[in-house]
Structures are given as structure tokens and as C-alpha cells.
Design brief:
Length: 217
């Protein structure tokens, strides 16, 4: 993370239904209980402009443009999110907890969409300008179980259809899962893998422990 930013930046990554949104909320509650200012946010989205692009991306409106153009739209959303929400919060000294971030682009557009890795790397360097999460928690779950959970949640929300990125076969989602695990292996000082098959309280406890150890809480 840049030196002028005094807050901590934590990202959650992993497959569909791995429990990211649930655990973002749980960790935010824990940190607030310790008197820390916390901004909970998500990608794509997290600022009015980026939420507009979220709609375009997740409904599949942009799919016809191809994966490279989708990667550019995710980058445009991230640029706005960083400028409007993330950087100001970190400058104030708040902690930012973000549900998905740049690793999702590397995995979904790089592996899932076969967009050239160097193109994606150059794009991220331009957008992030040296900003890097202090900690990335990768919630790992077999794709089939994650998709079942996501489908159950959609059902309970009265929303039957999977979105643009959920609709692929299980084998595709397993390749994405492996992509996140490879990132964790390549960047162990930034990333930690969490077993997301455990129950919600156990996952929350492991995350609390990791945050305490890694960020000297
Ligand atoms: N995308 C991309 O392609 N490129 C990018 O750069 C970025 C994103 C940033 C965003 O989807 C999509 O955008 C995403 C990648 C793509 N692909 N998809 N789909 P999203 O934000 O709508 O959804 P998501 O990020 O995939 O997450 P999700 O499906 O909403 O799931 P989740 O947040 O990981 O899980 P959850 O909502 O916390 O939990 C799901 C259900 O399981 C829910 O009913 C919970 O109550 C339950 N749950 C949670 N934890 C547990 C445990 N431990 N046990 C049992 N049940 C649990």
C-alpha cells in the first residue's frame, strides 16, 4: 500500500458462494468493536459510477464486446471506486474491506476469459498506481458446493437466474478456484487461504486470527 495511506486495506477473494459477503460483514463488525473505522465495499461497484458499471457487467450487457472489453470496464469501475471510495477512506485512516478486487480480474478475465496476462498486468499497474492490499483472504471452497450455496441464496432472494459469471459449468469454476490458489502460492506474504467449507463462525474465527497475526491488530 502507498506510504501516505494510513488505513489498512483488506480484500476478500474466492469463488461464488464461498461466503465472502458474509465474512466481510463479520470482520467489519469485529473491527468496529475494537474502535476501528471501517468501510465495507465491493467490486465491481463501491461508488455510484462503478455500481452503474456493475449492472452493465453482471447482467451480461457487455458480454458481446468480448472479454478484453469487459476487462477494460472492470478496470474503469475500479478506477472510480479507488478515487471515490477506497483512497479517501485509507487517507482518513479507516480500514477498507473489499469484497473482490484485482485478483478477480486476473482470475475471471485472465483464466476465465483468456485475456492476455501482460495486458491485464499493465492495466492493473495503471489503475492501482502502487496500491496493494495489505492482506488478501482467499476463501476456498469446492466449486460445486459454492455454486449450491449461491443458488440457494438466489432462491431465497426470489432471483432464479445466475448472472453473467455464474452460468458456466462446474469444471470452469474449478479452474478459477485453482487460479486463486495459484495467486496465494505466488504471493504468500499478501495472501492467506481460508477453508470456506467450515461453518460461518469457524471461518470468522480463522479470519480474525489471520487479521490479528498479519496486521498486528
Ligand atoms: N468479477 C470479474 O469477473 N472480474 C472482476 O474484476 C471482479 C468481479 C471484481 C461479481 O459477483 C462477479 O463479478 C463475480 C466475478 C466477477 N462472479 N460471479 N458470479 P457478485 O458480487 O454478485 O457475487 P460473488 O462475488 O461471486 O459472490 P456471491 O455469489 O455473492 O457469494 P459470496 O459473497 O462469496 O457468499 P455469501 O453471499 O456470503 O454466501 C452465499 C450463501 O452461503 C448465503 O446464503 C450465506 O448465508 C451462505 N453461507 C455463507 N457462509 C457460509 C458457511 N460458512 N456455511 C454455510 N453457508 C454459508
Amino acid at each position: 500500500m502507498g506510504d501516505f495511506l494510513s488505513g489498512k486495506f483488506i480484500t476478500f477473494e474466492g469463488g461464488e458462494g464461498s461466503g465472502k459477503s458474509t465474512q466481510v460483514r463479520r470482520l467489519a463488525e469485529t473491527l468496529r468493536g475494537k474502535g476501528i473505522g471501517v468501510v465495507e465495499t465491493r467490486e465491481p461497484g463501491g461508488s455510484p459510477g462503478a455500481e452503474m458499471l456493475r449492472h452493465v457487467l453482471l447482467t451480461g450487457v457487455a458480454e458481446a464486446l468480448g472479454p478484453k472489453a469487459e476487462a477494460l470496464l472492470f478496470a474503469a469501475a475500479r478506477d472510480d471506486h479507488l478515487r471515490v471510495t477506497i483512497r479517501p477512506a485509507l487517507e482518513r485512516g479507516d480500514w477498507v474491506i473489499c469484497d473482490r478486487f484485482a485478483d478477480s480480474t486476473r482470475v475471471y478475465q485472465g483464466i476465465g476469459g483468456a485475456v492476455d496476462v501482460e495486458f491485464l498486468g499493465a492495466l492493473q499497474d495503471l489503475i492501482l498506481q502502487g496500491l496493494r492490499p495489505d492482506l488478501t483472504l482467499i476463501l476456498d471452497i469446492p466449486a460445486e458446493l459454492g455454486l449450491e450455496r449461491a443458488a440457494r441464496r438466489r432462491g431465497s432472494q426470489g432471483r432464479d437466474a445466475p448472472d453473467r459469471f455464474e452460468k458456466h459449468p462446474v469444471a470452469h469454476h474449478e479452474r478459477l478456484r485453482q487460479g486463486f490458489l495459484d495467486i496465494a502460492k505466488a504471493e504468500p506474504e499478501r495472501c492467506a487461504v481460508v477453508d470456506a467449507t467450515a461453518d460461518e463462525d469457524e471461518v470468522a474465527a480463522e479470519i480474525r486470527q489471520l487479521v490479528t497475526e498479519r496486521l498486528a491488530l
